[in-house]
Amino acid sequence: MTHSTTSPLANLGEFGLISRIAAKVFTHESVVTGIGDDAAVTAISAGMHMLTSTDMLLEDVHFRRTWHDPYRLGRKSLAVSISDIAAMGAIPRWTLLSLAIPPELPLDFVDNYIRGFLAMAEEYQVTLIGGDTCSSRSGLTISVTIMGEQYPGQIVRRSGAMPEDDIWVTGTLGDAALALKLLESGETVSDKLLPRLLDPNPRVYAATTLAEAGLITAMIDISDGIMADYGHIAERSGVGGCIRLDELPLSSDFLSYSAHFPVIPYQLALSGGEDYELCFTANRNNREKVVGCAKKCGIAVTRIGIVSSSPGVTAVNPDGSSYKAQTEGFNHFK
Length: 334
Ligand SMILES: [Mg+2]
Known about the structure:
Blueprint: H1 8-22, E1 31-33, E2 41-42, E3 49-58, H2 70-86, E4 91-101, H3 107-123, E5 127-135, E6 141-150, E7 166-170, H4 175-184, H5 194-198, H6 204-212, E8 218-222, H7 226-237, E9 240-244, H8 252-259, H9 265-271, E10 277-282, H10 287-297, E11 301-308, E12 312-316, E13 322-323
Parallel strand pairs: 4-5, 9-12
Antiparallel strand pairs: 1-2, 3-6, 4-6, 7-10, 7-11, 8-10, 9-11, 12-13
Helix pairs in contact: 2-3, 2-6, 6-10
This protein binds magnesium ion.
The site of magnesium ion has 5 residues, from strand 8.
């Protein structure tokens, strides 16, 4: 076998790569048999349901190797899946990772990618239980499947929002979209803004705490912008909503950057992607409890609007006039 440094799959072989990964995996007690057999065996906690979600990340569609260093790409590729389980109020537990690797990808890249993926996994107590690797003819393709669990009564769906409920979001909006815009135009991005795009934190603790407290009626993670994602809650719940622009939580970096940049701040905060914050609805009688719960989790929450019984989601300017927003988030098929 020749040992060039440029072809990880050819040199290591698929099984070499897998055992290289398996050696570093954090293993949760629920995993009976992990990587290495024909299938993984896991034990679901008594009385809980299993939740499953899958995501693909394609080079030059979802990420660029020039912007995303492999370590943070590894972290992010699992974080976005963890975020989907969190958005249901559930606990992320097990993950499957499949990679189609271009032959020219340096072994270092693969190693650092895996290091990032496994660091994120351990941080959230998620066990990598299997996956697949193969050679890609064009670009790196990442496929992540995640499974979580929760008691049936604590699983939060998109469909439970009620008219008059408050609409809430965690954290700040638009930071990742602004960071992307700045990168695209070759500008420098601040140390606070850049991780919002490259290394998002899934809000698992806040989501499960709110869900377990029975405080929320519907929830989604914000991956495509608040207008589009709240729109999914509205659609699934058979309601509408009104979002007040002056209530949108914007970070200080977002405000100072966007002042010097020819973008409409509201537009990025409303329709920019990849915030990975939570949007949820809650009965207005629970306002103080929601704030208390979020405080306990160390996360900021902001009330940005109200659920309406009539369909359609509108954004309202500070003066009360309706804001003509581009209501769709990132659409892969456009
Ligand atoms: Mg989602």
